[in-house]
Recover the amino acids of this structure.
């Protein structure tokens, strides 16, 4: 079963755990998405997280998405 950290209700509070030192495994940008696959944590920026999301969600045991933080900074 996949667990999601993204709230679905308006006004829900995200549990932020990724920081500026967490970097995307694909390009090195700041990570906003963490996925656990086969006991290993993979980190992705928003771009690469969305690019690989469909395939990753099929095999991930957890999916933590903090991309909503990007809209807050605008």
């Amino acid at each position: 079963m996949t667990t999601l950290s993204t709230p679905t209700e308006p006004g829900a509070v995200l549990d932020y755990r990724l920081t500026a030192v967490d970097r995307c495994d694909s390009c090195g940008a700041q990570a906003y998405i963490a996925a656990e696959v086969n006991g290993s944590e993979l980190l992705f920026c928003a771009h690469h997280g969305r690019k690989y999301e469909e395939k990753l969600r099929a095999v991930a045991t957890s999916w933590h998405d903090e991309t909503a933080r990007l809209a807050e900074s605008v």
Observations:
- The first strand starts at residue 3 and ends at 4.
